[in-house]
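> example.struct
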């Protein structure tokens, strides 16, 4: 994967969501608290793969443009992927953030945004990729889990790792209690990582991500 292009200042973020959008909210709060110039980035639009979700309502409350691309509204998965890429590109992002976006993007999207498309995942990759990471880790009986922020490649949660946060299991954890503790760590890590990528730039050599 090549070095990322020089970001504009502040970096333009398009955030993709599918659910409650608390990771999106953490980014919005960081920009509001520090100011876009000091934080190094601003959210310019929020996209989703489904309507009527709290993630989109958070964006609307923040006065941001939103867009929805549902797979079922397109004749093929590839057509959906191309439409999603177009909708994102319209907002000229420097970085695209998948924050609880529950879809795997395809070749068109990666051709345009590969190397500047990051995802947050609620497990310590490469353990427990996929949509059921928290339950899978719990069922496996792990003693520690956490979250991973990584660049997206053509695989499932398999791209170069940028940062990870650790969460210890408790005896009485269920999937919901564990996921909430992971999300606490995840939100802070996402805010920190996006700010650092935007302010300091980064290189990706093979699997190794470096932020100067
Ligand atoms: C996060 O834990 C993310 O890693 C996972 O879904 C959750 C999204 O939470 N894929 P939210 O929508 O940001 O509240």
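> example.seq
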């Amino acid at each position: 994967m090549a070095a990322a292009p020089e970001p504009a200042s502040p970096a333009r973020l398009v955030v993709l969501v599918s659910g409650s959008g608390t990771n999106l909210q953490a980014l919005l709060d960081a920009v509001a608290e520090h100011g876009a110039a000091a934080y190094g980035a601003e959210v310019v639009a929020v996209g989703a793969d489904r309507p009527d979700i709290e993630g989109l309502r958070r964006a609307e409350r923040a006065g941001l443009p939103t867009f929805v691309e549902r797979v079922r509204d397109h004749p093929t998965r590839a057509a959906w992927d191309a439409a999603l890429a177009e909708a994102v590109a319209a907002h000229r992002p420097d970085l695209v953030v998948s924050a609880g976006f529950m879809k795997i993007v395809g070749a068109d999207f990666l051709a345009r945004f590969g190397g500047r498309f990051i995802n947050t995942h609620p497990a310590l990759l490469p353990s427990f990729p996929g949509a059921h990471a928290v339950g899978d880790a719990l069922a496996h009986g792990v003693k520690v889990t956490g979250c991973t922020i990584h660049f997206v490649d053509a695989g499932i949660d398999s791209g170069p790792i940028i940062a990870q946060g650790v969460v210890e299991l408790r005896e009485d954890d269920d999937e919901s209690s564990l996921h909430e503790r992971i999300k606490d760590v995840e939100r802070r890590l996402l805010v920190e990582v996006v700010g650092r990528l935007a302010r300091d730039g980064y290189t990706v050599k093979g699997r190794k991500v470096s932020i100067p």
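> remarks
The CA atoms of residues 145 and 167 lie 5 Å apart.
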